[in-house]
Amino acid sequence: MTRIHFAVDHGGYDLGRALEARAIAAGYDVVWHGADTPDPGDDYPVYAVRVGRAVVEDQDAGIDAFAVLVVDEGFAGVVAANKVNGVRAVPAASPRSAVTAREIVDANVLVLDGIAFEESAWLTVSAFVTASLPHVVDHGRRILQIEEYENAGTIEGWAVQLEPEQIAVQHG
Question: pLDDT tens, 85-117?
């Protein structure tokens, strides 16, 4: 069962709770990392780090997990969440952009603006957690380069070599 970690600041509280309820109704394993009530004085970095660490720990343990961060200003949440080693946080305002983020960089944290419309936000979350990373060598190599820089501070040029039968054939 896919796990979705939710975190919100005061600007994303109402939308975050609505998305949490939809995720529970859809049968996802949901973990809430936000406050129990909205707090106009809260700060988004705390929630971004919480949800980022939670999803990375789960993924490292082999759990199918993603995170959704809903904050007043989505771009700020992206910057904060991406400070957590292993997080690839992206903003997405549509299902198409959410799927693309999963397919290109294997994003694991979706960041939404708190003012997004609930129905559109839910479709975006659903697309994000159900999209899969295609077996494309170029994407894999680039993700490894990002991780190498994140962990070692260099990009030595990971050489990803796959046998032809391991490469998904793309029909277009």
Answer: 999 999 999 999 999 999 988 999 999 999 999
Residue 19, SS3?
helix
Task: Indicate the burial class of 22 (C-beta count within 10 angstroms; 0-12, 13-18, 19 or more).
Answer: middle
Domain range list for the chain: 3-130, 137-166
Specify the CATH number for 3-130; select among 1.25.40.10, 3.40.50.360, 3.40.1400.10, 3.40.190.10: 3.40.1400.10
User: Greater confidence, 139 or 150?
Assistant: 150
| Distance from C-alpha of 68 to C-alpha of 7, rounded to nearest angstrom | 6
Treating both helix axes as pointing N-terminal to C-terminal, what angle do 95-105 and 118-130 enclose, rounded to 10 degrees?
A: 30
